[in-house]
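Raw record, unedited: Phosphoglycerate mutase
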Amino acid sequence: MLALIRHGQTDWNFAGRLQGRTDIPLNAVGRAQARAAASAYAGGYWEAVVSSPLGRARETAEILADALDLPFTGTYDELLEQEYGEAEGITGAELATRWPDRVIPGKEADADVAARGRRAMHRIAAEHDGQHVLVVAHGAFLRHTLSSVSGHDARHYPRFDNLSSSVVQFANGAWHVRTIGDVPYLEAAVAIERRAAEAERAA
């Protein structure tokens, strides 16, 4: 079982700027979010913590590990956020103006993000021998990874709050999504499908 957790807030999050691979640190709010979230994972079920190498994810993971007295067992390059190329550092409004078709120079393909997300889950599971692991990563990365498991279009996934978690389980030879952004899977799937239908009607 893996809990895929979005890192705590950064100043760029607060300003609505795309971060991608830009290594923006947590701010004070983000550190407080991580400390407050730790209680949700107490009780002995979770056994280790890992993260993306980017500082905002690693620091979130280290705060969780310290608060829960769990081992922080390292970083995985496969958990890096999606590369946004020339769009990193700009706001969503600027993005819509400059690249309305979202064909952004230097942007990592969505399918490539999803593929390495699945590789990350398999590698973490293999290297932790059946343990239940907290995995701290990034919003776009989580959206594409989870969509590749659930079969829903990532465009209709919800925006993940800082420190929200989505639980996946490996069973019967495949990964299964159990929660999406702290919402039970079936409930979240209905909302995703509703957004997809609304988008189709509006097209």
